[in-house]
């Protein structure tokens, strides 16, 4: 397993977090961002929610990284 494979795995994980919908998936399970603002942000669940919202905020960057990954795969074979 090389560094490129590890980076691709991280990109796939970021893509999976970015497509989670709060209304359909997160809120019914008690993972909405309104519940974990303030003091509870330091908990593990609050940190995971922060990571989910950070990846959703950076969707444009994810699109560019996905395009770069596709171009590298096409060129390198």
UniProtKB/TrEMBL annotation:
<feature type="signal peptide">
    <location>
        <begin position="1"/>
        <end position="18"/>
    </location>
</feature>
<dbReference type="GO" id="GO:0006888">
    <property type="term" value="P:endoplasmic reticulum to Golgi vesicle-mediated transport"/>
</dbReference>
<dbReference type="GO" id="GO:0015031">
    <property type="term" value="P:protein transport"/>
</dbReference>
<keyword id="KW-0813">Transport</keyword>
<keyword id="KW-0653">Protein transport</keyword>
<keyword id="KW-1133">Transmembrane helix</keyword>
<keyword id="KW-0812">Transmembrane</keyword>
<dbReference type="GO" id="GO:0005789">
    <property type="term" value="C:endoplasmic reticulum membrane"/>
</dbReference>
<dbReference type="GO" id="GO:0030134">
    <property type="term" value="C:COPII-coated ER to Golgi transport vesicle"/>
</dbReference>
<keyword id="KW-0472">Membrane</keyword>
<dbReference type="InterPro" id="IPR013880">
    <property type="entry name" value="Yos1"/>
</dbReference>
<keyword id="KW-0732">Signal</keyword>
<protein>
    <recommendedName>
        <fullName>Immediate early response 3-interacting protein 1</fullName>
    </recommendedName>
</protein>
<dbReference type="Pfam" id="PF08571">
    <property type="entry name" value="Yos1"/>
</dbReference>
<dbReference type="GO" id="GO:0000139">
    <property type="term" value="C:Golgi membrane"/>
</dbReference>
<feature type="transmembrane region" description="Helical">
    <location>
        <begin position="57"/>
        <end position="75"/>
    </location>
</feature>
<comment type="similarity">
    <text>Belongs to the YOS1 family.</text>
</comment>
């Amino acid at each position: 397993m090389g560094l490129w494979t590890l980076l691709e795995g991280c990109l796939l994980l970021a893509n999976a977090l970015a497509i989670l919908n709060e209304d359909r998936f997160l809120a019914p399970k008690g993972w909405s961002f309104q519940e974990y603002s303030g003091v509870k942000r330091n908990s593990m669940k609050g940190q995971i929610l922060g990571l989910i919202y950070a990846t959703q905020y950076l969707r444009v960057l994810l699109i560019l990284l996905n395009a770069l990954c596709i171009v590298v795969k096409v060129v390198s074979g």
